[in-house]
Design brief:
Blueprint: E1 3-7, E2 10-16, E3 32-38, H1 42-50, E4 55-62, H2 65-77, E5 80-87, E6 94-98, E7 108-110, H3 124-128, E8 132-136, H4 147-158, E9 162-166, H5 175-178, E10 187-188, H6 192-199, H7 204-212, E11 218-222, E12 228-232, E13 235-239, H8 252-265, H9 270-285, H10 300-303
Parallel strand pairs: 1-4, 1-8, 2-6, 4-5, 8-9, 9-10, 10-11
Antiparallel strand pairs: 2-3, 6-7, 11-12, 12-13
Helix pairs in contact: 1-8, 6-7, 8-9
């Protein structure tokens, strides 16, 4: 398998545009409601499949209807889901996202069985055999904060696998634990708030350099409308965002990760791979949900 995305799987229920929660039993009519496969592993897997990369996703869902839906929709997008385990009696993680007119996205979230994913749920040969393993949401997959899992990552990297990592939350209490993964990660892809909390630094450039010093070959900090900051041993590079109308920012970080990983698979240099991530994120921002704008996305790999 070319890429394995490992970690958080969520069903998103999105509605737009929502300016306020109705009072009492009132009803507001909306333009759009969608259900999508999301989360730092599932959303990135869908983006990778959309851009034409062979990808398998590994994680946990419940044995409920939401789990049925998530597996079905990921398969429809072309993701290998044989590494997703079903947890008996468990709730599949889900979020309700009322999308504001400006694309902002407050959320209501149930973590579900993502919290129970453990090394025992993983096929080690699948991990070791991948060209790239993307860790999605290690801040909330507490069962993987395990020496045995870190040893598996070390073994995979020794075999030539590239390891990338993204986070899910912006919760300060969860950030310190993620730092234990940094010596086992080649490329870290946090957003600005996560980078600041992980590093304890006050500015994004200092944060990126501090995190770079803890093991990764590159740190790519996403900055929303300001694009991203790429930190490597060669220095700091700003990659601007594309100027596109924003419908919904859900899944833009996952799309950036997917495009970046696709760039690595294609042999691009880090900054060039970041530009591909930027282009894919811009497409996703133009529609509702983490899989918006993926039709025709394979062309980006040739054009960007």
């Amino acid at each position: 398998m070319t890429v394995v995305t490992l970690g958080v799987h969520i069903v998103d229920v999105l509605a737009r545009p929502v300016e306020a929660i109705p009072d009492g039993q009132d009803t507001h009519l909306l333009e759009q409601i969608r259900l999508t496969a999301a989360g730092a592993a599932a959303g990135t897997a869908v983006g990778l499949a959309g851009i034409g990369v062979q990808v398998a996703s590994v994680g946990a869902v419940g044995d409920d209807e939401l789990g049925d839906f998530l597996i079905m929709i990921m398969k429809r997008h072309g993701v290998d889901v044989t590494g997703i385990v079903r947890k008996a009696g468990g709730q599949t993680a889900a979020s309700i996202l009322p999308i504001r007119p400006d694309g902002g996205r407050p959320s209501f979230h149930v973590p579900g069985v993502n919290l129970t994913l453990s090394p025992a749920d993983l096929d080690r040969e699948r991990v070791i055999g991948a060209r790239v393993v993307h860790l999605g949401g290690m801040d909330v997959t507490w069962g993987l904060h395990d020496p045995g899992f870190l040893a598996l990552l070390a073994e995979a990297r020794e075999a030539g696998t590239i390891v990338t990592m993204d986070l899910l939350s912006n919760m300060p209490d969860l950030m310190p634990g993620t730092r234990s993964f940094l010596p086992y990660v080649d490329y870290l892809l946090p957003n600005e708030e996560q980078a600041l909390m992980m590093s304890g630094e006050a500015g994004v450039e200092r944060a990126a350099l501090a995190l770079l010093g803890e093991g990764p070959r590159g740190v790519l900090v996403t900055l929303g409308a300001e694009g991203s900051l790429v930190a490597t041993a060669s220095g700091l590079t700003r990659v601007p965002a594309l100027d596109v109308p924003v419908v919904d920012t859900t899944g833009c970080g996952d799309a950036y990760c997917a495009g970046f990983i696709a760039g690595l698979v294609d042999g691009r240099e880090v900054v060039d791979a970041a530009r591909l991530g930027t282009a894919l994120a811009a497409r996703v921002a133009g529609g509702l949900g983490s899989d918006a704008g993926l039709a025709g996305a394979r062309e980006l790999r040739a054009s960007e």
